[in-house]
User: Which sequence fits this backbone?
């Protein structure tokens, strides 16, 4: 890895033991494992952020759509009343 940097981190012993067990099981080294774990974490955080933004957008648009539907419903009600009035007058 040409453009990489060494980083010193402190981990609780029980966490490092778990990592070492998985590293042996998956035939990786610690660096590979930690790189993959960090990538996975960053991807998941991005997904969560996107979901939050989408949820906010859908909520906001839901209110706009509800208002438009209520206005349309009122217009439809008035048109129905006019139509029924015309029908009643023609009888």
Assistant:
């Amino acid at each position: 890895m040409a453009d990489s940097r060494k980083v010193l981190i402190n981990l609780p012993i029980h966490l490092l033991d778990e990592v070492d067990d998985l590293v042996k099981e998956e035939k990786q080294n610690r660096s590979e494992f930690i790189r993959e774990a960090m990538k996975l974490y960053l991807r998941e955080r991005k997904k969560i952020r996107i979901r939050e933004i989408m949820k906010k957008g859908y909520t906001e648009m839901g209110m706009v759509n509800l208002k438009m539907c209520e206005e349309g419903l009122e217009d439809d009600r008035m048109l129905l009343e006019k139509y029924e009035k015309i029908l009643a007058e023609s009888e």
In short: Helices lie at 13-26, 30-90. The chain has a mean pLDDT of 91. The chain has one domain: 13-90. The two ends are 88 Å apart (CA to CA).
